[in-house]
Every structure is written in C-alpha cells, then in structure tokens.
Amino acid sequence: MIFGAEVGYSALLGGLISAVPNSYFALHAFKFQGARNADKVVKSFIRGELGKIVFTGVLFALSFTLVTSLNEFALITGFVATHFVGVVMSGTIDYSPTRKTPKI
Questions:
Q1: d(CA 93, CA 104)
Q2: Residue 66: which of 20, 17, 19 has the closest Cα?
Q3: DSSP 1-51
Q4: What is the rounded CA–CA span in Å between residue 96 and residue 104?
Q5: Domain coordinates in residue numbering, the chain
Q6: Structure pTM?
Q7: Residue 69: CB partners within 8 Å, gap ≥ 6?
Q8: CA 57/CA 10 separation, integer angstroms
C-alpha cells in the first residue's frame, strides 16, 4: 500500500460515514409518492434529513472517540470524496421520460 493501513481504513470509515446516513435519508425520503400523500412526503423528507444529520454527527463522534489510531485528514477526505461522487453521479442521471413511438 502506498499510504498504509491506517490511512486506508480511515478513508473507508469516512466514506461509510457519508454513505450510511445518506442511505437512511433515501429510505425515509422516498417512502411516499403522489399528490395525495404530499404532507407525508414533506414529513418523511424532513424526518430523513434530520435523521441523516444526527446520524452523521454521531458516527463522526464515535469514530473520533473510539478509533485509537485514526488519520483525521483521510477520514474527512473519504467523507468529502464520497459526497462529491454522489453529487457528480446524480448529475449524470437522465430525468427525461423515455417516449416510445409505436412502429407503424
């Protein structure tokens, strides 16, 4: 390894600190659909986002207190890189509906 095991698991831990709360948000945010469930959609988005923020803070606090040999720079770099990849990849999604033309 180029940087060592400590940097590797610190970056992995930072990536997990980003990915796990985002998954929690996705599970809560997209639980309901449709105009009839608009109030449930808003409440689930708020609940998911607040849960994500708390979950992220708790995971950072646990990692800083419980992991004895932690490279803080690698942890934060892994967190930011995972967030960045998610944002960039969401920009590549084609949101336009596909329209199939019938063959005549």
A1: 31
A2: 17
A3: --S-HHHHHHHHHHHHHHHHHHHHHHHHHTS--SGGGHHHHHHHHHHHHHH
A4: 24
A5: 5-90
A6: 0.78
A7: 6
A8: 16
d(CA 66, CA 89): 32
Q: Is 75 helix (H, G, I), strand (E, B) or coil?
A: helix
In Å, what is the CA distance from 48 to each residue of 23, 94, 101? 10, 24, 39
Q: Note whether 75 and 14 are within 8 A (CB).
A: yes
Query: How far lies 22's CA from each of 17, 49, 65, in Å?
Result: 9, 9, 22
pLDDT in the model for residue 1: 60
Q: What is the pLDDT of residues 16-72, one digit of tens each?
A: 999 999 999 988 888 877 777 788 888 888 999 999 999 999 999 999 999 888 999
